[in-house]
Amino acid sequence: MESPAVPNTVVISERARDCRKKRSKNKSQSRSQNVEFSHNFSWKSDKTQQIYSSRLLQALRQVQLNPSSSSAPQRGRAVREAADRALAVAAKGKTRWSRAILTNRLKLKFMKRSKRQRVRVSAGVSRSEKRRVGILRLKKGKNLPAVQRKARVLGRLVPGCRKEPLPVILDEATDYISALEMQIRAMTAVTELLSRASSSGTRSSGTGTATAPRADQLGSADHPPPMMYMSLVG
Amino acid sequence: MSSRRSRSRQSGGSRITDDQINDLVSKLQQVLPELRNRRSDKVSAARVLQETCNYIRNLHKEADDLSDRLSELLETTDGTSAQAEIIRSLLTQ
Hints:
By secondary structure, chain A is an all-alpha fold. Chain A has helices at about 5-30, 45-65, 70-90, 95-115, 145-155, 165-200, 205-220, 225-230.
């Protein structure tokens, strides 16, 4: 085979060098409990929001089809849980809070089905490598009771971070806040769409200008892949 | 690997440095709308944490309100026409 051997080896060696560089960089970081990990996508991008909106609509359809609970708060709660689940899926399992949301749902499902079987769905996934002694001896400056207290409160707010040390909580909270903001943006857009869709009749004249800001909210920078939305139809 | 981390207390390699914590706190501060414009050396870590807790609670509350509104809308709208409208508006951007 007349394959150009030299460029290939150059490419391969470059890639290996990059891998080694990345690995050494990661090693120096991972020594410190691997706090920083790179996110390949951004919560701020329009594409992420589009993908999340379509997933959310799919999940909402399922909620709509199974109106098992009749009271309003339970329905609202079901919608919120579906939205959180879709958000955790969008995170692709890279963060503790997303994994905690998904495993919590699993745990509840198992508990409901059979109370006898105690299925522990690896709750220790967030604690497997961390030790709790480190909380008190973390750093003298951060041992102030105010900071520690607030860190505990924050750890309770972010799902899956109850017993984590401070740097983990800080990192998780940063990502969680960005994700929540995206969730709010997407849910607002979907609510607008649904409310416009439900108000039938006054669609002829006013929607010419009204659709533009809504489309911007959903992210019209890239052309939307129509196949993704076609799956929503019946 | 984990055993080395769990037992060493004074070795510098496996400790969380103060700089790392400050870096994380400043990153968190950039996300908060209240504190984004202030210089990071003027805002204490406790303040950042407090604002974070408040902000997350606000976001949760907003999400709950939106969920309630969405559930009401889902109850009252007709399924197929609503989705047709959504799809139409999404495609005609």
